[in-house]
Amino acid sequence: MNCFYCQNEIGEQSSCPYCGADNSAYRKVIHASNIFYNEGLERAKIRDLTGAAEYLNQSLKYYKYNMDARNLLGLVYFEMGETVQALSEWVISKNYFPENNPIADHYMDDLQHGANMLEKLNQTTKKYNQAIEYVRQKSYDLAKIQLKRVLSMQSNMIRARQLLALLLMMEGKYADAKKELSEAAKIDIKNPTTIAYQQEVRRVLKDKKSNKKKKRRDESLDYVNNADGYTPRQTFIEAMDNSKSGIVNILVGIIIGVLVCMFLVVPTIRQNANSDAASALVDANEKASSTATDVAVLQREIDSLNEELDKYTGKGDQKQSYEKLLEAQTARTTGDMEAACTAMETINRDLLSANGQALYDEIIAQTNVYQCDKYYREGYTAFYKQEFQQAVDAFAKVVAIDEAYSNGDAINYLAQSYAAVEDNENALTYYKKIVETYPNTRKARAAERAIETLESGGKLDIANSSTGGAAPAATTEEVVETPAVEEAVPAE
Q1: What is the average pLDDT score of the chain?
Q2: Beta-bridge mates of residue 226
Q3: Are strands 223-226 and 229-232 parallel, antiparallel or unpaired?
Q4: Which of 73, 235, 306, 363 has its CA 20 to 30 A from that of 473?
Q5: Using CA atoms, how far apart are residues 343 and 326, in angstroms rounded to an integer?
Q6: Closest CA to 423 of 466, 456, 392
Q7: CB-based contacts of 447, cutoff 8 Å, min separation 6
């Protein structure tokens, strides 16, 4: 077990040996989470997926880092046909546990690298949403066609089967609805919506069966009293068979043939034509809506993933951040500021506690000063050796950390270095910053003259004359000689 505060391994101890935090209540919370996970696992084994999802969600409310519960919840959602929710749970699990998480890796790999699996699931979701829209428009025939297509692509989508069963019940086709609900019950045996629909179907079918039996009991034979006693009344067909009138039989046959054609053949032809037209309309609607929505959906997904990537790229998890923070603190204490700077690069400040963030801010302030001094010396030396591109690289690093470093000398040298390499656009940008930030100063006046020259198409002679800044502090490794320079002048 890991400490809830610093995430270090503490075993069976109640108090963390690293930070001293009391983990007794935290241990109880994890225990409660595991109890709900075990109950959810038992429910999932008997295919009570709805109950399993409820218990697993409760487990994650107690402890959101329960990796087994989250992975199982994703599998339960996937078995119910809720692909988006399943994928969300596995993505969250992978973000919490990027290493040693083989189950989430396996499921996500199957989805992402299966034969068009993601595209198939995406199309299934779109078709189901379109079916919902058809129902709202009361186009029930189109909705049924769409739902049947959904189930042909993803047979375990419970919500699609329930909606199809409901539409069949509205049409009075309770036997067909019963079949769909039976298939839904095989996937999730205790789904409350499925159970409610099944009860209604059984009630209606039972009433129909009862009424049919009652009608049969009420039917009785019609007898006629004649000389031979009571005999059954002769039916019309029997009378026709006993008659010798062939013409009547022929006429009756023609009439029956016409009626069969009108009530059986013609409706079937019309139904097939309507079904073909409805299918064509569904296909047209899908093509019209797919193109319009695909770009927007993909752009939202890209933006969301970019935000997540910007948040986590180059940063470690909570445990690694604490380890690197301790490493930076040790390096600072021993005077190894280079190692401290390296350690600070991979720390995710947002994952630290309030105390950890305070220590982070203290160390980063010192490492920033160290880096600014270091890069300023490098840029200063390169500038006066007329190695202007190296000067640009060094001074840009200083300005990125602190634009006001050395009372604006760093930004002044950066502007001159850009002008020296003829990058006038960046040179003008930084010259203008000097004018805005340090008005009525020698730097500002020189920057104004430089701006006027560059905007008029002229060129600054940085190599022969430049606006000097403060020299960096000399170190034991190097001594930098400061040239006597005044102001940058335009080239004649």
Answers
A1: 80
A2: 229
A3: antiparallel
A4: 363
A5: 9
A6: 392
A7: 412, 415, 431, 432, 434, 435, 467
Query: What's the confidence (pLDDT) of residue 22?
Result: 79
Q: Which of 371, 377, 380 is nearest to 468 (CA)?
A: 380
Instruction: State how far the Cα of 57 lies from the Cα of 77, in Å rounded to an integer.
Output: 11
> If residue 349 lies in a helix (H) or strand (E), which one and from where to where?
none
What is the tens place of the pLDDT at every residue in 172-213? 999 999 999 999 999 999 899 999 999 999 999 888 888 877
Q: What percent of the chain has pLDDT over 90?
A: 28
pTM to 2 decimal places:
0.46
Of 101, 100, 98, the closest CA to residue 312 belongs to 98
Helix (H) or strand (E) holding 347: none
For 336, the token pair is 């190894």
Give first-to-last CA distance, the chain, whole Å.
Answer: 74
What contacts 432, CB < 8 A, 6 or more positions away? 447, 451
Task: State yes or no: pLDDT of 491 exceeds 50.
Answer: no
The label of the residue with tokens 């050796």 reads 385
Give me the residues paired with residue 490 across strands.
460
- Taking only the tens place, the pLDDT of each residue in 322-355 is 888 888 889 888 889 888 898 888 888 888 888 8
Within 10 Å of residue 400's Cβ, how many Cβ atoms? 11
Take residue 41 and report the two structure tokens written for it.
């696992």
- Give the rounded distance of the alpha carbon of 389 from its chain centre: 43
Token digits for 229? 């006693």
Return all residues near 337 (Cβ < 8 A) that are at least 6 apart. 331, 366, 367, 370
Taking the C-alpha atoms of residue 146 and residue 134, their distance in angstroms, rounded to an integer, is 9
